[in-house]
Amino acid sequence: MIVTSHGRPGYLKRALASGVRGFLPKTTSAATLAQVVRIVHSGGRHVDPELAAEAIAAGDSPLTPREADVLEAAVGGAPVEDIARRVDLSPGTVRNYLSSAVTKIGAANRHEAAATARRMGWI
Q: What is the C-alpha to C-alpha distance for residues 101 and 48, in angstroms, rounded to an integer?
């Protein structure tokens, strides 16, 4: 069971895929938390309805795992050469992955793409 302040669609999907049976925001009341603990303990599942609706509306991440890695390394505005060293790729390959990620997300640039991917929980 996860109680988190990171109630983003991508995080929820990854948690469920890894076998989590309960997923709630930290703002959940104590009474609801106790009820959900009992549900999960008895073999049930519970996902906060708002988070579930957001995850369904958001869809799956359009990024490949490698694009996500490169985009995550770009958070904070790191130069391409630094990103390349961190992810063990050539600068040209990093530029290709960043360009692909920006296009898939529909962002104006890599900084906007990284911010969107982070907000959606894709990185």
A: 29
Query: Containing domain of residue 69, as a range?
Result: 65-120
Residue-wise pLDDT for 105-116, tens only, equals 999 999 999 999
Instruction: Give the strands of the sheet with 22-25, arranged side by side.
Output: 2-4, 22-25, 46-47
pTM above 0.85, yes or no: no
Residues 114 and 69 in one domain: yes
Are the CB atoms for 34 and 1 separated by under 8 Å? no
pLDDT tens readout for residues 40-63: 999 999 998 888 888 887 778 899
Pair 6, 30 in one domain: yes
Token reading at 60: 């799956």
